[in-house]
């Protein structure tokens, strides 16, 4: 081949590559959760849910506005810390992500939501339940689970009526999530005519609860509610056993994990713990969720902890809005995302109200038997 032909061939090859690249687009989606620290098992569970969605979307060859989209996940660790959470949020904004799934905790999701709002980037939390998360008037903020008004109130009524709690004690970890859900639990107890005998608090890194449990023991509680996460609830259950406190132990979605029996080191009696997950599926939807859990285990050799399915759904809802809008630009697909109605996910049907909350959000009440979670009921 002479030099002129080589130049022509090279130019044709470059034009071909350029044309192929023009046909493709890269869509960057951020995920933030605590993948280090005491609740890293929950953060990693969430991140794997995002990775599963990304892998499936790339395998499908999703088209957005006539271009084939290649999805990339930018995963950040906030360690469940608000300051680290806002730093992670700013890092994702600087990386020009098209959207964010996260954060896991209310205490990190709420401050981060301002960072995303200021940048105009949509954020969907799969697990932040504090009501304040969607009450700041930000158009970019969404969640796919029910909030603490529903969750805490339902648990409070359940403790008073179904568990027949005559002396109910409350402990919280002073985080946005823990204190918020404990406050709503108290309201639910009082509304149902239950009697509160004490309110104590700890922090989300504590391991010794002897003082507060000894104080509560003197009040002879038959139900102890804990607003916080499983990493604290496990040792608390162990120390309750050591002190001879035989009360039922009730908590929100933060304790409602597959890891709790291990963290409690075998001290949980069957039916002793009642918890609620801020989501729930019924009827035919259960088949989709079980199929997801089976795929998740096959792919990662791990059981779902709590919120991986909600992360998976949140990411797919976001991408569905991009496809419908014909654009991955936040300003263009955000109005479409806000109008999401009737999206069929593995966790049920997703529609957003004008605050970004899920409509008709469900809760699932669980207990533990033989070291495994056992469903009690789905409540709306």
TrEMBL record:
GO BP: any one term: amino acid transport
CDD domains xref list: PBP1_ABC_LIVBP-like
Transmembrane segments annotated in the record for this chain: none
SUPFAM superfamilies according to UniProt: Periplasmic binding protein-like I
Keywords noted in UniProt: Amino-acid transport, Signal, Transport
Domain Leucine-binding protein: 27-371
Keyword Transcription regulation in annotation: no
Signal peptide: 1-22
Coiled-coil stretches noted in the UniProt entry, renumbered to this chain: none
Cited Pfam families: Peripla_BP_6 (PF13458)
Record PANTHER family: AMINO ACID BINDING PROTEIN, LEU/ILE/VAL-BINDING ABC TRANSPORTER SUBUNIT
Stated family: Belongs to the leucine-binding protein family.
Name recorded for this polypeptide: Amino acid/amide ABC transporter substrate-binding protein (HAAT family)
Upper taxonomic lineage: Bacteria, Pseudomonadati, Pseudomonadota, Betaproteobacteria, Burkholderiales
């Amino acid at each position: 081949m002479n030099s002129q032909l080589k130049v022509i061939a090279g130019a044709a090859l470059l034009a071909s590559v350029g044309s192929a690249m023009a046909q493709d687009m890269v869509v960057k989606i951020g995920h933030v959760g605590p993948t280090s620290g005491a609740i890293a098992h929950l953060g990693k569970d969430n991140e794997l849910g995002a990775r599963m969605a990304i892998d499936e979307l790339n395998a499908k060859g999703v088209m957005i506005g006539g271009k084939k989209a290649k999805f990339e996940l930018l995963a950040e660790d906030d360690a469940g810390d608000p300051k680290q959470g806002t730093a992670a949020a700013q890092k994702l904004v600087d990386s020009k992500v098209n959207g964010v799934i996260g954060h896991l905790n209310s205490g990190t999701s709420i401050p981060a939501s301002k960072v995303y709002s200021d940048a105009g980037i949509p954020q969907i939390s799969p697990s932040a339940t504090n009501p304040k998360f969607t009450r700041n008037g930000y158009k970019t903020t969404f969640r796919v689970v029910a909030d603490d008004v529903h969750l805490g109130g339902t648990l409070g009524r359940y403790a008073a009526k179904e568990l027949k709690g005559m002396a109910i004690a409350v402990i919280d970890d002073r985080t946005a999530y823990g204190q918020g859900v404990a406050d709503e639990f108290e309201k639910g107890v009082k509304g149902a005519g239950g009697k509160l005998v004490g309110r104590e608090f700890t922090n989300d890194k504590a391991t010794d609860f002897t003082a507060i449990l000894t104080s509560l023991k003197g009040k002879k509680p038959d139900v102890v509610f804990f607003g916080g996460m499983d990493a604290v609830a496990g040792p608390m259950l162990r120390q309750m056993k050591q002190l001879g406190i035989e009360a039922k132990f009730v908590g929100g979605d933060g304790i409602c994990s597959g890891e709790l029996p291990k963290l409690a080191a075998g001290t949980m009696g069957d039916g002793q713990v009642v918890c609620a997950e801020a989501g729930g599926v019924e009827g035919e939807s259960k088949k989709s969720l079980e199929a997801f859990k089976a795929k998740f285990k096959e792919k990662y050799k791990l059981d779902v902890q709590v919120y991986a399915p909600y992360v998976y759904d949140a990411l797919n809802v976001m991408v569905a809005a991009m496809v419908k809008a014909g654009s991955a630009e936040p300003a263009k697909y955000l109005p479409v995302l806000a109008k999401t109605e009737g999206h069929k996910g593995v966790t049920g049907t997703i529609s957003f109200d004008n605050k970004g909350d899920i409509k008709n959000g469900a809760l699932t009440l669980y207990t533990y038997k033989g070291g495994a979670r056992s469903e009690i009921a789905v409540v709306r």
